């Protein structure tokens, strides 16, 4: 039964779903409309599933058909992208992939990205460039970077944002601090000690969101120490300037300790980001790699509606 579904059928299904009209789909596919209608009807009869309901002015997709439509659109898109990339590799036309990264992104994420690219595009160079998120976003807009690995949130219709990692956001303190004897830190206690923050100018959106979240649990912090790197944050904590919030996976000096915040479930989230207009042939394949690695399924197809950006998680790394 399932062998009845050939790739040409997937192309037909995708075209019909995108046009919601057999005649327009047939024109796009360079087929006669009666032939297209018959092949889809034969397929539906063969697999025992009605994919489309026909009307005098068009068609709509059935609930069961929606599953097949989503698969068909993704399969056709994947085929086209992979062939385009493979042709570019064969012709030696893959340009270096220029990747920016924030110093607050865990190195294991960058290693995973580098390994995946080397496996998917053997012999094709990758160039890394560090910087703060605001700078890297600007460079992508200027087309001097193809993509970047950045802390979330990143908003704006001009970005494709694919979440790649998430870790708890925890309080960093000296190991000899009395707070380190506690299993978790109460918000009222944190409010008096939280003074060390990342420089807001490096990622204004993340800083604003963090202030909002702190406000939701009754904390209005005194922002007295600003850091530009994880090393700066740890040095400030060691020097007794206060405590800080960090990604739990951050490599920690032995003189420091971390504890969760009581009654909250905050995370530091990281994403692979590129402009929606980016043209590097490797980008859609890398996005698919991340989705597969994270167990994320493609979004359902919604006919004639603008697709939204990929789901963005809520806080900074």
Layout of strands and helices, then pairs:
Blueprint: H1 7-19, H2 22-29, H3 33-47, E1 52-55, E2 58-61, H4 63-90, E3 97-101, H5 107-120, E4 126-130, H6 133-141, E5 147-151, E6 159-174, H7 187-193, E7 194-198, H8 204-216, E8 225-227, H9 230-238, E9 243-247, E10 256-259, E11 267-275, H10 283-294
Parallel strand pairs: 3-4, 3-5, 7-8, 7-9
Antiparallel strand pairs: 1-2, 5-11, 6-9, 6-10, 6-11
Organism: Acidipila rosea
Family: Belongs to the LysR transcriptional regulatory family.
Keywords: DNA-binding, Transcription, Transcription regulation
Integer tally of domains: 2
Mean pLDDT: 88
Sketch the major β-sheet.
9 strands, mixed
SSE pattern, N- to C-terminal: HHHEEHEHEHEEHEHEHEEEH
Number of strands: 11
* Distance linking N and C termini: 48 Å
Description:
The protein is of the alpha/beta class and 317 residues long. The chain has two domains: 2-90, Winged helix-like DNA-binding domain superfamily/Winged helix DNA-binding domain (Arc Repressor Mutant, subunit A), CATH 1.10.10; 96-294 and 302-317, D-Maltodextrin-Binding Protein, domain 2, CATH 3.40.190.290. Helix content is 40%, strand content 21%. Strands 3, 4, 5, 6, 7, 8, 9, 10 and 11 form a nine-stranded mixed beta sheet that branches. It has a two-stranded antiparallel ribbon with strand order 1-2. Helix 1 (7-19) crosses helix 2. It is elongated and about 80 Å long. Residues 5-62 form the HTH lysR-type domain.
Features:
single chain, 317 residues, alpha/beta, Arc Repressor Mutant, subunit A, D-Maltodextrin-Binding Protein, domain 2, 2 domains, nine-stranded mixed sheet, two-stranded antiparallel sheet, 10 helices, DNA-binding transcriptional LysR family regulator, DNA-binding transcription factor activity, DNA-binding, transcription regulation, WH-like_DNA-bd_sf
